[in-house]
Amino acid sequence: MTPHRPDREVAIVAFAQSDHRRRTDDLSEVEMVMPVLHEVLRQTGLKTSDIGFTCSGSSDYLAGRAFSFTMALDGVGAWPPISESHVETDGAWALYEAWVKLLTGEADTALVYSYGKASPGSVRDVLTRQLDPYYLAPLWPDSVALAALQAQALLDAGATDEPALAAIAARSRQDAADNPHAQLPGARPQGEYLVQPLRTGDCPPIGDGAAAVILAAGDRARELCSRPAWIRGMDHRIEAHSLGVRDLTDSPSTRLAAERAGAFEAPVDTVELHAPFTSQEVVLRRALDLDESVRVNPSGGALAANPVMAAGLIRLGEAAARIHRGDSDRALAHATSGPCLQQNLVAVLEGEPHVR
């Protein structure tokens, strides 16, 4: 399958995120988002009026009120009128929409942001609303229980074991020690079983956070960033809605999205996987054919900070930031949505060759 290469170059030129915290009772969504928006604009020297398109990702279910995302626009400033859109999912898909907008030539710059406050309620219960409404949702299986089913399927298939899962958790959180925004940096015990075979350490923290990126096309990107992270390809695919008809030990949607994005055309040196559970990293590594030579989640990944609806966008932002700093030349970023890796997005980012 030959990936389609867009005619227009688009890059991530700036990335910012909040310090992810267990609770932000002292902050509204607007107050949580505003500093991140100010920081990402500061990095480029742009003003809100310079942005051609704005797109956000969030969930009204987390906020507990309809059209809550319109309130967050107070942090952007909707006057004078702006070209704006919203997706009811992780901000990675808002980035995809903005990328398409720039590819069409309808804008030269875009601001993408996402946020989530999971602390006010039981996010495990809230996420059951993603399930099939006739057969699965009425049973109220929460997100951890479903991830445990996937983990057990991997154990039964001989694809991993509990010590290997513990090693993933230890590596991720140890890497997060260098991430000033992480909620759970540094080594910590695996803890007791939450839902067997998943222990507390195999699961993501519950917390609040926000992130934002700026995209720019062509020469505008080069003006705004000394080393833009060019999006060479991006695609997203979805599995069947019913968990009963899926092989939970595999992720064909991730593999197909990666093929369409051009991920297998050349080696990557960095991968940011949106794997909230240790067992899901095993599935994604197999789907993406990643060996131990590739640096996976140097930021600590979702095991160190998992703000719902922003964690996927953060994976793209972290991968782009490593290219900006010169720590990576070709990176792969992944985002997921839904139970047991139901929907997956893959992007390939590249930096221009270093000038010696």
Report what the structure shows.
With 356 residues, the protein is of the alpha/beta class. The chain is built from eleven helices and twelve strands. Strands 3-2-4-7-1-8-12-11-9-10 form a ten-stranded mixed β-sheet. It has a two-stranded antiparallel sheet with strand order 5-6. Strand 11 and strand 12 form a beta hairpin. Helix 4 packs across helix 11, helix 6 packs across helix 10 and helix 7 packs across helix 10. The longest helix is centred in the first third of the chain and has 16 residues. The two termini are 36 Å apart. The relative contact order is 0.19. The mean pLDDT is 93.
The number of helical segments is 11
- Which sequence of SSEs, written as H and E, runs from N to C? EHEHHEHEHHHEEEHEHEHEHEE
- How widely separated are the two ends? 36 Å
Q: Strand order, biggest sheet? A: 3-2-4-7-1-8-12-11-9-10
Strands, count? 12
Q: What is the mean predicted local confidence, pLDDT?
A: 93
Rg calc:
19 Å
